[in-house]
Design a protein that fits this description.
The protein has about 170 residues and is mainly beta. Helices cover about 15% and strands about 45% of the residues. The protein has a seven-stranded antiparallel sheet with strand order 3-2-6-9-10-5-4. The chain is globular, with a radius of gyration of 17 Å. It starts with 14 loop residues before the first helix and ends with a strand.
Length: about 170
């Protein structure tokens, strides 16, 4: 077997290599919310369906993230799948120091006291079942307890460091 001429020069594993490779990976955009002393939330592209029976999902969060203290202790979290019309919301929840639950964010208190964002494609309130150490992050495993998949629109994607709309 010969090497394909379009393969680049291999690089040693590093944080930058991982970031560069995953910039090529289009991912759906979600916002994770929790209640600490107030509402907290962050934009996540690491959301994954883990199992159907029992229903489980996972996402990663850095232990240095401003939302980590609340997520590290929350019994329940909110998972919101963003639509292509919500690029600004995704950017707000991704920006350090932003007023994420300020007047520009439409939200309400949902089941289990979890902050729920309005106008999303779908949402879940989930019970946290585990927080698994993974380098400078934690992988949070959660079991959905209630949700709504019926929001209008198409999903927001993240690719090459930008939010994008899905194209046919």
């Amino acid at each position: 077997m010969t090497a394909s001429p379009d393969l680049g020069t291999p690089r040693a594993a590093s944080p930058e290599l991982l970031r560069s490779v995953f910039r090529q990976h289009a991912a759906g955009v979600a916002v994770i919310t929790a209640r600490g002393s107030g509402p907290v939330g962050f934009t996540a592209t690491s959301l994954t369906s883990v199992a159907a029976d029992p229903p489980l999902l996972s996402f990663g969060i850095g232990t240095g993230a401003s939302s980590w203290p609340a997520v590290s202790e929350a019994a329940h979290i909110g998972v919101h799948i963003l639509g292509e019309h919500q690029q600004e919301l995704a950017a707000t929840f991704a920006k350090s120091g932003a007023d994420r639950f300020g007047p520009a964010t439409s939200w309400r208190t949902g089941p289990e006291g979890v902050p729920l964002l309005d106008g999303v494609l779908a949402w879940l309130v989930c019970e946290v079942v585990a927080r698994v150490p993974a380098g400078d992050h934690r992988i949070v495993l959660a079991r959905p307890v209630v949700g709504d998949p019926a929001g209008p629109g198409r999903p927001l994607l993240y690719h090459q460091g930008r939010f994008n709309a899905l194209r046919d």
